[in-house]
Amino acid sequence: MATITFEVKTYEVKIARELNASADGLSLKFPAYILCRGDKYHVVVYILDDASPVPANTFIPTRNRGTIFVPRWQFEWFVDLLRNEKPVYCYLNSDSPNWNALYTGQEPVGEHEL
């Protein structure tokens, strides 16, 4: 089992009419993805088309790469997190990749945006 946590240092968003890929033998359609990079590891958050099948998330430690597959309606959540929070971390788990996630550092209760 391999698990890692890394701080997301940079991210990029690619939006297109329709992008295609394959995973788990499935043909995927997705209008966007978010690539999050740390110092050594990276994760790609695939924003799936409503009609696309949903493959299992992955973490391949030898490639320093993970994936998270989410429905289109969660796109705003991920972009908002990356734009408005700091630090943002990524958790990747090779045995339970459904736990792959982005999350914030600890913040005081009641903190709000100015």
How is this fold's topology laid out?
Blueprint: E1 3-7, E2 10-23, E3 26-37, E4 42-48, E5 58-60, E6 65-71, H1 75-84, E7 88-93, E8 101-104
Parallel strand pairs: 4-6
Antiparallel strand pairs: 1-7, 2-3, 3-4, 5-6, 7-8
How would you describe the overall organization of this protein?
With 114 residues, the protein is mostly beta strands. The chain has one domain (3-104). Helix content is 9%, strand content 51%. It contains one helix and eight strands. Strands 2-3-4-6-5 form a five-stranded mixed beta sheet, with helices on one face. Strands 1-7-8 form a three-stranded antiparallel beta sheet, with helices on one face. Strand 2 (10-23) and strand 3 form a beta hairpin. It is globular, with a radius of gyration of 14 Å. The mean pLDDT is 92.
Structural domain count: 1
The radius of gyration over CA amounts to 14 Å
- Going across the biggest sheet, name each strand in turn: 2-3-4-6-5
Strand content: over 45%
Cα-to-Cα separation, first versus last residue: 42 Å
> Helix amount, in percent?
under 10%
Mean pLDDT: 92
Largest sheet, strands/sense/barrel: 5 strands, mixed
Low-confidence stretches: none
Number of strands: 8
In short:
The protein is mainly beta and 114 residues long. The protein is built from one helix and eight strands; from the N terminus they run ββββββαββ.
Q: What characteristics describe this protein?
A:
single chain, three-stranded antiparallel sheet, globular, five-stranded mixed sheet, mainly beta, 114 residues
